[in-house]
Fold this sequence. Notes:
- The protein is of the alpha+beta class.
- The protein has two domains: 1-36, no CATH class; 43-135, CATH 2.40.50.
- The protein contains two helices and nine strands; from the N terminus they run E-E-H-E-E-E-E-E-H-E-E.
- The strands form two sheets. Strands 3, 4, 5, 6, 7, 8 and 9 form a seven-stranded mixed sheet that branches.
- The longest helix has 11 residues, at 22-32.
- The protein starts with a strand and ends in a 10-residue tail after the last strand.
Amino acid sequence: MAKTSVTTVDNQTGEVVELGNAGEVRSAIAAQFKTKKRVTLPTLKQRVGMPIAVVFLSPMAEGKPIENSKITTPATVATVYNLLDSQTYQIICNTVTIKELQANYPDNGYVGKGFYIELHNAEGKNYKVVDMRELDIDGVELPQV
């Protein structure tokens, strides 16, 4: 994968100045400035064969519809804390995950709880199955949302 070069224009000379690749620029910004508030959250998408360990910080809700998209139904999303990298994300919930959480934790009872979640393809079927386990998160310091 090629690294993306970040450039800017020098206000005095009008010349294009290369600042470095995106990773270098991110690092330079992080070294100079403290984040005051996260305005948007990165997205955590459930993928087959990729386990995640998260704490639900909010109930699942219908996301915003995407204009000019072939997808007509908005995604179901929630705010989660990723136990693996200690970051907060917006998760796009898979249908089977939604059904299992709603069935086993009525009235949004999954909020504040930690889960191991891994999707698998059902052999010979056109749907997915989920391996979901509630985790003991005693002692984990969670961020405020």
